Amino acid sequence: MKISVLTSSRADYGIYLPLLKKIKEDNSFELEIIAFGTHLSKSHGYTLTEIENQGFDCIHTISSLIANDDEQAIATSYGLTVLKFADFWQVNKYDLVFCLGDRFEMSAAVQAGIPFNVKFAHLHGGETTLGAIDNIYRNQITLASKLHFTAVELFSERVIELIGQNKNVYTVGSLSLNEIEKFQPINKTEFFEKFKLPNKDFALITFHPETVNTEMNRHFAREMRIALSQVASKLILVITMPNADTMGSVFRMEIEQLKNEFSTQVICVENFGKENYFSAMYYAKLLIGNTSSGIIEAASFGKYVVNVGDRQQGRMQSDNVINTPFNYQNIIEVVDKAIINKAFIGKNKYYNKHAADLIIHHIKQFNEIL
Fold first, then answer.
1. Which residues of the chain have pLDDT under 50?
2. 28 with 136, same domain?
3. What does the pLDDT look like over 165-216, one tens digit per residue?
4. C-alpha of 220 from chain center
């Protein structure tokens, strides 16, 4: 069975990894990886090297991102991605193509495949993020896909409602948490030395723009910086930099200003990679920001999350998530409360021990009936 995997960012690649390893080890599959989006962007860490270092035999690269991040640039990048993938799908044929999530460039790659009858398998459909236009892209990808692997039963129900049938819709849990109970963090001393962290408590921080309410992002970014400048007096701030979203550069500029003002308290990381990021989550005091990893993964590490703003609003949350608006006073108040909490010991609603094995099982069944 000839399979390809569409990966457009450090985030989706980290989620794919457990599945990629199982596919690579299974002789019944021929695997090719299609890397595009921020993987090829030097300003976002050029994470193609991370994929190459995993030793995959065949990696296709497609460059289509424009450097700017205003609305016109995003729309132009979308169109350019469609054009380039039209050429790619014309000459490259697969039994199944995996796609994941809800980013605009992932949607563009999938939309280009519709006239070619590309058989897509979509991960993480049925979710809702009211503060981002990703809902539209996610549903576009769902409608173009033949197989659907969702994180929880509620999301399967939403996919079924959207596509009008329950065929080939499977609840498998979040792939990023596959066998998370076996995860061993990098040695603490080694990890702290690698990223030049002082041996103190730190908050792991990731902020992205709200792509629905774009005109407010300058205000949101300032509120973030003011709040974090206060948090920096209590914790080291380890900040992962924003992805290529509309107005992402606005947050980058505020983070860079924060780094200039608090050079010894702020550590900025362009790209951790999955093992380093999970190790950072393991050693962190808490998480702050508006990223999906706080919603989906942090509970499995016993971490509380200060979830800011509306970007993740509508996503199912475990009990470790504390929500607050984009107001610096509210953020500071909630962080102060979260700091004194002990480790979270509740359930992660996204966890399924055998997510990758379930996906492998279902795609083999799908291949038998093709």
1. none
2. yes
3. 999 999 999 999 998 999 999 999 999 999 999 999 999 999 998 877 778 8
4. 21
Shared domain check, 148 and 83: yes
d(CA 106, CA 78): 9
Task: Please tell me whether residues 282 and 315 are part of one structural domain.
Answer: yes
For residue 59, the domain's CATH number is 3.40.50.2000
Residues 241, 129 share a domain: no
> Cβ(287)–Cβ(203) under 8 Å?
yes
DSSP bridge partners of 237 = 203, 266
Q: What is the pLDDT of residues 17-36, one digit of tens each?
A: 999 999 999 999 999 999 99
Shared domain check, 314 and 166? no
Residue 297 CA, chain-centre distance (Å), reads 10
Q: What is the pTM of this model?
A: 0.85
Residue span of the structural domain in which 216 resides? 182-339
Of 269, 343, 240, which is closest to residue 300 (Cα–Cα)?
Answer: 343
267: its two tokens: 């550590």
